[in-house]
Amino acid sequence: MPAQPGELGLLRRIRERAKDFGGARLRLGIGDDCALLKPRSGEELAVTTDLSIEGRHFRLDWHPPESIGHRALARGLSDLAAMGARPVAIFLSLGLPRELTVPASRGRSAMSRPWIDRFLDGFLALAEAFKTPLAGGDLAESPLAVADIVLIGAVARGRALLRSGARPGDLLYVTGSLGGAAAGLARLASLARDASRPAAPSGPPGSLRIPEELGQILAPHLYPRPRIAPGLRLAGGGLATAAMDLSDGLSTDLAHLCDESGVAAEVDAAALPVHAGATLEQALHGGEDYELLFTAAPTVRIPRSFAGAPLTQVGRIVRPRKSRPRVALITAESKAALEPRGWEHFA
């Protein structure tokens, strides 16, 4: 096996791979104690952080390294999309077991690429797709794989989309379709059971083989697409009154929006764009779709799609009353409280 690269060697590899796209607003990137950013005149900075932990957000034996890298960044980009912010720079801190930084043996002599290189394949491909430079970060040896990101975005001063702007009478919309990520995760778990993989939190990196024909089915979970372009359109055109991304599930995230705006909401079950192969339960509670949930005044014309993302009206905002639930689900048979049963840490 080749000599251990060490922290400095790994830093050089990351810096070399990240140098090809810098961005006009990144004055100084990897290599110094701090990065230097220069926002455009009239813009505010939007800053978000996100943490991905082995055994909680991904499994080394289930998820390809490319998917883990993609997902680690997609989570933060989706936060920027929800604010209507343009991505400016990424900071990535990694805690990794040493074996993930060196080639792994596949048999007596064959060697595979290091896990970290494949992680960076997925991470940097998504960064490049949104022209967002990797401007810095940190590295440490760790018993668990951890990826922590900080994302800097920019939005015109006073135009950021907030969760607190929804008003009674507004209509409720989502981008794309819902439940695909949850359905994909369930299929991935089934694939692992069929392959008789161990039930421990993680196993040998990349040990689960994913058939090519399942690529499309698993894509919403393995490679979610942040809705940056629709977020920019909503903010730039002043179309939305409130917005957030769907990371924890519609039932939970809509409750957050209602709490921040001091309103209630009604959701039409029949109007929900349920992803092909997903169930209504997965669309309501599944999470990790990274679609946008937003509200708009009824007088505002919302097109059927933005930048290839379908837009669907799924409900309305109403006044909160003691006699009605904070969020209600309307079906052909009834109107009942939609309890928040999406993801919640420590619950």
Keywords:
single chain; 347 residues; Phosphoribosyl-aminoimidazole Synthetase, Chain A, domain 2; 8-stranded mixed beta sheet; 4-stranded mixed beta sheet; 8 helices
Walk me through this protein's architecture.
The chain is of the alpha+beta class and 347 residues long. It folds into two domains: 37-156, PurM-like, N-terminal domain (60s Ribosomal Protein L30, Chain: A); 171-183 and 222-337, Phosphoribosyl-aminoimidazole Synthetase, Chain A, domain 2. The chain has helices at 6-18, 65-83, 115-129, 180-194, 215-222, 228-236, 250-261, 280-285; strands at residues 26-28, 36-37, 43-53, 86-96, 104-105, 111-112, 134-141, 146-156, 171-175, 242-246, 264-268, 291-296, 305-306, 309-318, 327-330, 335-337. The strands form four sheets. Strands 9, 10, 11, 12, 13, 14, 15 and 16 form an eight-stranded mixed sheet that branches. Strands 3-8-4-7 form a four-stranded mixed sheet. A two-stranded antiparallel ribbon has the order 1-2.
Question: What is the strand and helix layout of this fold?
Answer:
Elements: H1 6-18, E1 26-28, E2 36-37, E3 43-53, H2 65-83, E4 86-96, E5 104-105, E6 111-112, H3 115-129, E7 134-141, E8 146-156, E9 171-175, H4 180-194, H5 215-222, H6 228-236, E10 242-246, H7 250-261, E11 264-268, H8 280-285, E12 291-296, E13 305-306, E14 309-318, E15 327-330, E16 335-337
Parallel strand pairs: 4-7, 11-15
Antiparallel strand pairs: 1-2, 3-8, 4-8, 5-6, 9-12, 9-14, 10-12, 11-14, 13-14, 15-16
Helix pairs in contact: 2-3, 2-6, 4-5
